[in-house]
Amino acid sequence: MFSPDPTPLPGPLAQLRIMATSDLHVHLFPYDYYTDQPDDTVGLARTATLIAQARAEGGASVLLDNGDFLQGNPMGDYVAQGRGLTLGQGPHPMIAAMNVLGYDAVALGNHEFNFGLDFLDQALAAAQFPVVCANIAGMSPDESVLPRVAPFTLLSRDLTLSDGSTHPIRIGVFGLVPPQIMQWDKCHLDGRLTARDMIDVATRTIPEMRAAGADLIVALAHSGIGKPVVRPMTENAATALAALPGIDAVIAGHCHLVFPSDHYLGHDGVDVAAGTLMGKPAVMPGFWGSHLGVIDLTMERRHGEWRVHASHSEARPIVEQQRPAPAIRKPVFSTASILNAAARDHAATLTYVRRAIGVTDRNLNTYFAQVAPSDCARIVAAAQHAHVATCLHGTPHASLPLLSATAPFKAGGRGGPTYYTDIPQGDLALRHLADLYLFPNTIRAVRVTGAMVADWLEHSAGIFRQITPRSSDSMLVDPAFPCYNFDTLFGLSYHIDLSVPARFTMSGLRTPGDHRRITQLRLNGQPLDPDAEVIVATNNYRTGGGGDFPPFAGANRVVLDSPDTSRDILVRHVLSGRGASPFDQGNPVWRFAPLPGTSVLFDSSSRALGHLAQLPAHLAIDPAGDGADGFARFRIHL
């Protein structure tokens, strides 16, 4: 006997396309200002070509951006700190380009706050699109410190259904930013702004959007793909957001990764094949314009209401890998209108970054910055040390030992096999110093104990995997650990014992047991007393909790909170001619504790082959062939 299918046939169907970019970081031109060379792998000018192609494929669509668009390369620095946004200077080139492309809505990312609220407000003044962020507010309910930013916006489109009828749909778009902005940019935001938990705010915003008439809700979550259930004030909450009733699609970002991609295979709540988080369509469109995120929604209209019937998600790259030779790449063409919108600022940025302001007597590179003390880190540490020493002169803190903490910012990883600093011997231009210090952090100093210093270094040493003694060719570095959280504390000497488990997780939690990788920890040749106090020169990101370092989990120990950016301090240091002193190459810093009969593998750029002679004599390292994804592989004999 025939049994009818209990699932009702769908009502009339229509198509809606959501396009998204994220983490553009002022990459408009396909150009690397640090190397002063074209770069086919970046640039909104190339992403714009994909946008035009996606629009030409037909149907109703919206174009969104998920934040981090005003800061991140020398053009952004030039506009913010060089030419400014005063009357007559023209709009911010990023805003001008977004206007040309016809963005429908844009969310704020955490780096939008790096240059302060006044600059952000000035930049947004020229925007011809709504800007959204739901989880920030003024210090009081009636205060609006960013009047050009709303919690959400409603976009209208007409959809043509399969039965030939046309009906409007209202698309609600709201933005969310990691609440950690209050730590990362405290110097700009403290006392002016508050940031709230993303999940809590989304739960309250969704019904407000429905009440305002939203038929479909898209979350612009400047947040990474994390766990389905998260703690309050979690930084990476895109998966947990997708689990909320009422959200129909999620644009993720912040982590500079791509979704859908194999990177997220096996993650809880993630279906890479379907392109969904917790069953909701989602994309994460890379960074610097590398990809265009596309979500195609098949919308069903039944009883006068819209619902998502089916979806397809993809991240379209601006560079297609050619088979069978992965080294051959075919980029899409740049869109002339975007190049024209930023042409004047591009030319001015080139002039800005090419100015010689000093000289280096050696090559400065980060090819081996994760396995040996780097001269790049050394000169940054020296600049911080000199500035803090001057500022603390004559204070009660001046008598304490002064250390300096810094990390490599460009050391491969997610940035790929060309993402390294490589400054030739000779003139130092401003672009070189911008390459040494990528971020507009401000300088700070903290007063901490020897025990806190030890835990600081233990957390940094979490970048390395545990290595079994007398094993061969284990991969050394944990690729999930960001290189910018691998701090070296100059002014100390210490060993890192890789045979011991990490003392802390990446989120700063203690692991079981009383493990310690840091051994032979000495100050001026003597063991560092756990109860002794020292001053450490560092930056606002680290003291604000960036990287979840254990020493900053408790009371505020900041003794210097300078408005000067770390990069400006570096520029002044180079102009002074003081070089890398007092942390010259002869000053011991750190090394791996010997593990006889043990070897590990480490990936770097193929260009690192020409710099093996610069490494410390104790580091026994030799080429080991090709690594994955265009990297070169090296073997270290511990």
Supply Rg. 25 Å
User: What best-fitting shape do the alpha-carbon axes yield?
Assistant: globular
Number of strands: 38
Helices, by number, come to 14
Distance between the termini: 74 Å
Average of per-residue pLDDT values: 91
Amount of beta strand = 25-35%
| Helicity range | 10-25%
Q: Pairing-aware structural class of the strands and helices?
A: alpha/beta
Instruction: List segments where confidence is low: pLDDT < 50 over at least 5 consecutive residues.
Output: 1-6, 322-326
Largest sheet: 8 strands, mixed
Explain what the structure shows.
The chain is of the alpha/beta class and 638 residues long. 21% of the residues lie in helices and 29% in strands. The strands form ten sheets. Strands 9, 10, 12, 13, 14, 15, 16 and 17 form an eight-stranded mixed sheet that branches. A hairpin with a 2-residue loop joins strand 31 (518-523) and strand 32. It starts with 12 loop residues before the first strand and ends with a strand.
Map the helices and strands.
Elements lengths: L12 E9 L9 E2 L4 E2 L5 H13 L3 E6 L8 H10 L9 H9 L3 E3 L9 H8 L6 E2 L3 E2 L11 E2 L1 E9 L5 E11 L4 H4 L1 H4 L4 E2 L2 H14 L4 E6 L16 H5 L6 E3 L6 E2 L10 E2 L4 E2 L2 E6 L5 E12 L2 E13 L1 E3 L7 E3 L4 H19 L1 E5 L3 E2 L9 H18 L9 E5 L15 E2 L2 E4 H7 L5 E8 H11 L13 E2 L12 E3 L1 E5 L21 E6 L2 E2 L5 E7 H4 L14 E8 H11 L13 E3 L6 E6 L15 E7 L5 E6 L1
Parallel strand pairs: 1-4, 4-5, 5-6, 6-8, 10-12, 12-13, 13-17, 24-33, 28-36, 30-35
Antiparallel strand pairs: 1-18, 2-3, 7-11, 9-10, 14-17, 15-16, 16-17, 18-19, 20-21, 22-26, 23-25, 24-29, 27-33, 27-34, 30-31, 31-32, 36-38, 37-38
Helix pairs in contact: 2-9, 3-9, 10-14
